[in-house]
Amino acid sequence: MNSIVSGITSCRLEKTDLVSEDAVMMRILQVLIGIMKHPASELLEDQAVCTIVNTCFQVVQQSAGRGDLLQRNGRYTMHELIQIIFSRLPDFEVRGGGDDGGEDSESDTDEIDMSSGYGIRCCIDIFHFLCSLLNVVEVVENSEGTSVHTADEDVQIFALVLINSAIELSGDAIGQHPKLLRMVQDDLFHHLIHYGASSSPLVLSMISSCILNIYHFLRKFVRLQLEAFFSFVLLKVTAFTGFLQLQEVALEGLINFCRQPAFIVEAYVNYDCDPMCRSIFEETGKVLCRHTFPSSGPLTSLQIQAFEGLVILIHNIADNMDRDEEDGDVQEEEENAVKPSPVEIHEYIPFWIEKPKDDFETWVDHIRMRKAQKRKLAIAANHFNRDEKKGLEYLKYNHLVSDPPDPMALASFFRFTPGLDKTMIGDYLGDPDELHLSVLKSFTHTFEFTGMNLDTALRTFLESFRLPGESQKIERMIEAFSERFYEQQSSEIFASKDTVHILCYSLIMLNTDQHNPQVKKKMTEDEFIRNNRAINAGKDLPREYLSELFQSISSNAFALSTHSGPSIAAVSAFFEHSDDDEVLHECVDALISIARVAQYGLEDILDELIASFCKFTTLLNPYTTPEETLFAFSHDMKPRMATLAVFTLANNFGDSIRGGWRNIVDCLLKLRKLQLLPQSAIEFETTDEENLNNGGSEPDLNVVSTQDAKFNRKQGSSLMGRFSHFLALDSVEESVALGMSEFEQNLKVIKQCRIGQIFSKSSVLPDVAVLNLGRSLIYAAAGKGQKFSTAIEEEETVKFCWDLIIAVALSNIHRFSMFWPSYHEYLLNVANFPLFSPVPFVEKGIPGLFKVCIKILASQPQDYLPEELIFRSITIMWKIDKEIIDTCYDQITEFVSKIITEYSANLQTQLGWKSVLQLLSLCGRHPETKDQAVDALIGLMSINAAHLTQSSYAYCIDCAFSFVALRNSSVEKNLKILDLMTDSVTMLVKWYKTASTETVTNSYSMASNASSSSSADENALRGVNFVHHLFLKLSEAFRKTTLARREEIRNRAVTSLEKSFIMGHEDLGFTPSGCIYCIDHVIFPTIDDLHEKLLDYSRRENAEREMRSMEGTLKIAMKMLQSVFLRYLKQIVGSAEFRTFWLGVLRRMDTCMKADLGEYGDNKLQEVVPELLTTMICTMKEQEILVQKEDDDLWEITYIQIQWIAPALKDELFPDEEI
């Protein structure tokens, strides 16, 4: 068998035509798979099996440019081979005991009985080969014409399919073979995690499937690996908002794990209750909740997917609890069991030590205790970051460390607690105190360096804290590391720990040399080796070892952010104490270079650098008067250089600035306060409103070209040249000689700062920088950290801050949905500030927010979310203090009118319409803006009526009623509004017909799709009912208006109400009960209210004119009642409620007929009511509604009521009847 394999795989094919070659290779594949399927294949040697797999893969690779059939056949054969080989893995003999024995027995030098056939060695080699396929790269050319290496996704997917098959068929047998298991733990997981976070959705889906298979069979061996996969892939990708498909795949990966019955409990116990692990279960739940929470718009696929996962998670938890109850005696448990109470820590228990699961009950108590310890450790970390002493005292108080302190407890706290300030850890560990030295030694013992190279071990050690600036502290820490590494080294390379100590320093120096841009001449490999001669007890270290270290450090720098801190302090001190121009120039040059380094992931260092520069500007010195600050700025070079440096950093490194934006904003506000900030320095202040609304970009008013907005490392010399030019012209003597005043000198500096560009070009900033900049501006506008001497100063500062906020928002309108939710949260937070003054903040903020709103509407976005967000902020702003509207109503009216007039077609959200119409209604109450607001509403209801929707109609009616109800409003315009309100019934009719059509369509399609049509039919019916609700809303507005003081308005409201009912008679599809309901709730109350008002006037003195006016309106209302009654008579007569309704009509006729007007004379309604009754009763008789019936007392009741209301009509209406 081995010979056959050797002969087939080593044969050479003669080149012929492609078809013949493909046929031969397919035949070879057929023979090879036939050999592996034969029972005698078990006698094949490991080498032969590996050769077969390798040959098949070569065929797959060569078929890439050939026929598709050959490639498919090759891949299928490869898949079959993997299945055959790894299906035998459970049957392979496990040689050796334990990990050590397994490693030895499976080494390449093992002596194996060849007669037994292939075994674990070929499985290891093949699995290693499959893992290596995940790292296959292909060379592609980018848009710039250069070649780049990227992972070959097609090969990755093929490899993942094969790996999945191998794991599924091997099952838990992999855990019995240590070397194969370590390959899964190390090689495989390394590739899966690396490519999982930066791959396509398809690859991530395959990787998640592979990890899930590993979890099924090998979960007890891959605890740390699973934590890493969740942390760096699934949770990280779901938090990233840039690629929706990738998010959905990652979320599905999380949900697949949640579907596993035991995952919830295992994740909680193994991770959430372990102080040294990430809370995987808790974070998974938070991710699902965060993505589930719906926005105001339609649900997205991601939200639905997250909701399903959340439901699965909840059911899984509940099922586990139910299962626990079923396992025991429920009755006995209910009687005797005590519900778990919160765990309290009463004694010191080492939190980093796990307890074996010997006794279940004590183990559960131990797990709960560790969870409580983990919570307390998180709180302690927060205290420690703010105050080291308070943090350590909290640890003692909660028995997390012993008293006196156990060094290992403190070391474990520093080593394993997430969120600790690494700078503070480094300072503590470097302290020479005896306890600190003991903690340092224990800290190094938390690391396992066995099997690591020196550079890898040193990287791991330095990543756990930040090296302090003092050389003595660094010395102690490197010495402790060297001792620990020497104890655990697995080879005999180092003669003593001193050798390790010296070489560590040499590596740190090499790292600085290779990766510091200030070092022009870099150390070569030969120089590095020469520098480390005879350090190993007088002998040389192996050259190959030193060469490997050199290449590692040169290609991959240490994560050392240590030198920037001391560097900033040293250079800043030099800058502070020097007066020499050249030295100052060199200091600025050095600090800018630090910024160039810090922009690569060292944001806190960049923030520290900005804080250092801000100190030298003297602008933020709280102990100097404004006059002293102004004098220093005008006569000292350092403050002007520092100011220029601050804003240069903001322009060139803004994408890496975080907390430093607060200092930049404070400096900017102080410059304005000192009147050192001319209007021309900030373009957006002089930009007209129209240009700002249309997103016009600012022209360049700066001395320096703006093409280097994003800093280019190659332009460092030009940046330094700017400071040289500044220094060359900045001496007082030369300025005076050039005839420059102090103001002109300051103006020159400010222009070089390019302040306007920071905000107008903020579109190039990353998301996190925009968020930090916005937070600083909003908090400054709210007065945080500001002191104002006068109200005018406060008002101007707040306006300036809002101008900056709006400039940022307009420049980033394309990603508004990303940053504005956080801005909105900041607006909510400022209301809780102790000294918050809402008057200038809201007064200056609302107009700016409307500018952003108009820009959003003008852009006609497809997504409704930006509109929803901006109106949410506008609403919360004017609700902070509603009286604010009285101070800025003119601006609000102008913006709202513009939105209604020009952009009503673009309003998509209910909140947008509600906010606009509510503010329009409020502004219409002011005499100065009343006419403009009314004209805007009239234009909306006439010219732009087609833009109204069912959701906005109700707000429009409310606004219209608020205008009509105003006493001092124009009668002519109010009558126009009432007419437009009446005409709006045509819109209601249109909406009703649309909803009715949808109902009929859904009913027609119900037979073909019962479930979906049922849902749609329900929605359509809901639409019909909503239209009826809107009609009632309109009618109610008319009813309220009938009580207006002015007779013209009252009478028109009554006639409008009548017209509305007449127009909606047939076209709104009211049911008999619906018709009665509308009349009963609108027309009857109208007559009752007018009658009550009539009687009220009749009791007043000198109110005859008002009384007669109200009497005339009531007369019109009674005629309206008759008209509506007759129009709806046929429709409502069949209703069971008609008898009661008719009695209601007669009752109101009676009350109006017998109204006592007192001293004002006769009731003129007595002339109208009999005519109305006669018409109604005659019509009812003609339609045979009012006839004598044995089972109907309607005729008899009417007869009795007529005798009571108008006895004179009895003989006319009932001529043949007697009492």
From TrEMBL:
GO terms for molecular function: guanyl-nucleotide exchange factor activity. The keyword Cytoplasm does not apply. Residues 366-556 form the SEC7 domain. It is found in: Cytoplasm, Cytosol; Membrane. One of its GO terms (cellular component) is membrane. Keywords: Guanine-nucleotide releasing factor. Pfam families: Sec7 (PF01369), Sec7-like_HUS (PF12783). This is SEC7 domain-containing protein.
